[in-house]
């Protein structure tokens, strides 16, 4: 399982607020292109959101489901990216001074994903998650505009007053 750490200059409640809004995942999760729909109870256990994940030139449509939710300390997600398999992402938040120490664990959760999981894949996931947590920190700390997704298109984001809306990065 790949483990990645990041110190964020905001309290856990603020980090949790960003994690609790499914539209934000299109911004900070590397490879996530769009959030199409979400349960209104997200991030309650059992709630999910539909997303589009880019795998090279191919867009995969699937969903992410909440397995465990303990605001503002812990969020565990079951991520589906079929046919590539399924994974588990654990996000642990700990208050440190005025900020939050985020620990992210990610690993395979299906037989197909376990078949391809090895030390090299662990390094790839870790590198991807270093970038993901950098993006999360930028969003939490207000250093990046709200992402444009199909769920919020035409609403507050990108009204032209503060410049164009920025879409999810890959």
UniProtKB/TrEMBL annotation:
Signal peptide start-end: none
Organism (species): uncultured Solirubrobacteraceae bacterium
Segments of this protein annotated with the region Disordered: 141-170
Highest taxon of source: Bacteria
UniProt-recorded name of the protein: Polyketide cyclase/dehydrase
Cross-referenced InterPro entries: Polyketide_cyclase/dehydratase, START-like_dom_sf
Gene3D superfamilies: 3.30.530.20
């Amino acid at each position: 399982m790949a483990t990645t750490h990041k110190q964020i200059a905001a309290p856990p409640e603020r980090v949790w607020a960003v994690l609790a809004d499914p539209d934000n995942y299109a911004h900070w999760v590397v490879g996530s292109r769009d959030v199409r729909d979400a349960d209104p109870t997200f991030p309650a256990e059992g709630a999910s959101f539909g997303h589009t994940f880019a795998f090279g030139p191919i867009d995969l449509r699937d969903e992410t489901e909440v397995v465990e939710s303990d605001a503002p300390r812990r969020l565990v997600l079951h991520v589906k990216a079929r046919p590539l398999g399924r994974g588990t992402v654990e996000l642990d938040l700990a208050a440190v001074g005025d900020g939050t120490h985020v620990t992210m664990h990610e690993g395979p959760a299906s037989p197909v994903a376990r078949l391809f999981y090895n030390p090299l894949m662990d390094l790839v996931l870790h590198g991807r998650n270093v970038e993901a947590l950098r993006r999360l920190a930028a969003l939490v700390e207000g250093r990046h505009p709200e992402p444009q997704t199909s769920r919020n298109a035409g609403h507050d984001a990108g009204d032209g007053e503060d410049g164009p809306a920025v879409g999810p990065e890959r």
